[in-house]
Amino acid sequence: MKKRNWIIASILAGSLGIAGAGVAHACGGPGGYSRGDHQGDRMMRVMKKLDLTKEQRQTIRNIKNESRDQMQAKREQMGEIRKALREQARAKTLDVDKVRELADAKSKIMADMTVQRITTMHQVRKELSPEQLEKFDAMKDRRSKRGDS
Length: 149
Known about the structure:
Elements: H1 2-26, H2 35-48, H3 54-90, H4 96-126, H5 130-146
């Protein structure tokens, strides 16, 4: 009887862990941040260490806001493509051409998002003084050595 209770308790505990992970994911992960928000907050913490002027902060905030809006549209497009791919996976017959078309569209959006991230970073870097840029690059180098890129 004890073994049976232990098994039931283990299953229940595992189920609660999975449910908790699902809730954390739905709420945006640890700390209530969505992935994009967390990365944006991390970038702003880095920017605080650079002793930006009020004008630099506002300009960088504007750059990030514009980029965020563009990225949100691309994430929505990506979600639609993922949904269509799931539908193709569940379809009774395989339409390879449709799957390839969706995969190509997905890769194009991913490339566009990469270009957008690099463009945003380039715009931010242009706003930094040479001293701030040196400090920023040193922080990025330390971060990449830790494997966090």
